[in-house]
């Protein structure tokens, strides 16, 4: 039985800041941001968007009424959780009117959470072939103003429907995963901003990719030439490129050229969004499918997932015939083109807008937020969500 990605969508906030202008305001050469880390625009979430609303808006793009009836498991991967007890999946389940006879959980392991959710979903479908699983990856990356990590912030979400006989990508059975305890990136429960050892994190990302790639080749007998493309978790787009370059010498010139070309295509969405943590790998995968129009059916796509702390996994999938018919490319174009550029000063003001932590009631103005699903405020220590279509 084939199991894999049947649908995939994403959502990003309607605001962004230009990285050239951010660099100038920070007295940094713009090329350090646009070339050095490979970012052009950074999505900025208004206070009316949080990980729940971003995920719900991403799923709204792809789910129809049939999906909502057949989904019996919602898995929400995030490292920006809004509650230490109640899962973000429960909120999305309600906002989208999904089948009440369903499981709903939240999964955490830095940027690896969505991948863990997909592998969990795969097992669930194997036992329940008629069901579907909604897997969400949603995050807001916050390091703070004028910090070393500021240029790698971002916000957004991806939504994936995992099912039998998928329309987009069949997930292959063989994968390799690796875990070790390191402190390259973390966010204690008392902080709304992450801490990162940038040099160590970069080194470990490359080291993890090397370990799982070498083990994968040994385990499967496959080589670089067997891949049409390799998509990476992209905290910033130059990071994945560094990893890819470590293996390119294993291929012929034709293989090198193909993988480099497809990598650049896969990084395009991420260059204009920034880091969305658990969703970054899948935004890259979606960018490849949407922007590369001549991928053949049965093309093998490699996916490298990395979550600091750290867990890494390399797994693969085969593109399905007519997969492009199941994408929402026109919606992607509209979502990007409808965004509004804000000044650095406006970005700084939005960044410092936070919800009360003392139980205070607050009402938020959602009229200026074009999203269908928004955070409308807080009352009695409860977030108040609104689906404008309900």
From TrEMBL:
Signal peptide: none annotated. One of its GO terms (biological process) is acetyl-CoA metabolic process. InterPro entries: HMG_CoA_synt_C_dom, HMG_CoA_synth_N, HMG_CoA_synthase_prok, Thiolase-like. Residues 178-246, 261-352 form the Hydroxymethylglutaryl-coenzyme A synthase C-terminal domain. One of its GO terms (molecular function) is hydroxymethylglutaryl-CoA synthase activity. CDD domains: init_cond_enzymes. It comes from Virgibacillus necropolis. NCBIfam families: HMG-CoA-S_prok (TIGR01835). Keywords: Transferase. PANTHER family: 3-HYDROXY-3-METHYLGLUTARYL COENZYME A SYNTHASE, HYDROXYMETHYLGLUTARYL-COA SYNTHASE. Belongs to the thiolase-like superfamily. HMG-CoA synthase family. Residues 2-165 form the Hydroxymethylglutaryl-coenzyme A synthase N-terminal domain. The active site is at residues 79, 111, 233. (3S)-3-hydroxy-3-methylglutaryl-CoA binds at residues 143, 242, 275. This is Hydroxymethylglutaryl-CoA synthase. It comes from the Bacteria.
């Amino acid at each position: 039985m084939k199991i894999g990605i049947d649908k995939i969508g994403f959502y990003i906030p309607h605001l962004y800041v230009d990285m050239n202008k951010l660099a100038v305001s920070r007295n940094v050469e713009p090329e350090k941001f646009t070339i050095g880390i490979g970012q052009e625009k950074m999505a900025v979430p208004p206070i009316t968007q949080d990980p729940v609303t971003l995920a719900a808006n991403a799923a709204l793009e792809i789910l129809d009424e049939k999906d909502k009836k057949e989904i019996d498991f919602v898995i929400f991967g995030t490292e920006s959780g809004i509650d230490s007890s109640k899962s973000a999946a429960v909120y999305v389940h309600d906002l989208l009117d999904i089948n009440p006879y369903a499981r709903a959980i939240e999964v955490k392991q830095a940027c690896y959470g969505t991948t863990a959710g997909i592998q969990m979903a795969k097992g669930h479908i194997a036992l329940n072939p008629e069901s579907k699983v909604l897997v969400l990856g949603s995050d807001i990356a916050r390091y703070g103003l004028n910090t070393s990590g500021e240029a790698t912030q971002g916000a957004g979400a991806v939504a994936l429907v995992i099912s039998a006989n998928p329309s987009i990508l069949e997930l292959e059975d063989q994968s390799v995963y690796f875990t070790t305890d390191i402190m390259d990136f973390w966010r204690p429960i008392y902080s709304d901003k992450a801490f990162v050892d940038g040099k160590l994190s970069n080194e470990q990302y490359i080291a993890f990719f090397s370990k799982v790639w070498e083990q994968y080749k040994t385990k499967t007998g496959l080589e670089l030439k067997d891949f049409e493309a390799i998509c990476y978790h992209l905290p910033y787009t130059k990071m994945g490129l560094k990893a890819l370059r470590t293996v390119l010498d294993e291929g012929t010139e034709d293989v090198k050229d193909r993988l480099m070309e497809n990598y650049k295509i896969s990084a395009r969405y991420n260059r204009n969004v920034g880091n969305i943590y658990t969703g970054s790998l899948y935004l890259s995968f979606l960018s490849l499918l949407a922007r590369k129009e001549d991928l053949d059916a049965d093309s093998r796509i490699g996916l490298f997932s990395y979550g600091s702390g750290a867990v890494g996994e390399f797994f693969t999938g085969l593109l399905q015939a007519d997969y492009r018919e199941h994408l929402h490319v026109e919606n992607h174009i509209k979502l990007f083109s409808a965004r509004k550029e804000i000044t650095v000063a406006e970005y700084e003001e939005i960044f410092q807008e936070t919800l009360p932590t003392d139980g205070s009631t607050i009402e938020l103005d959602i009229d200026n937020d074009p999203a269908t699903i928004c955070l409308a405020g807080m009352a009695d220590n409860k977030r108040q969500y609104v689906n404008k279509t309900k």
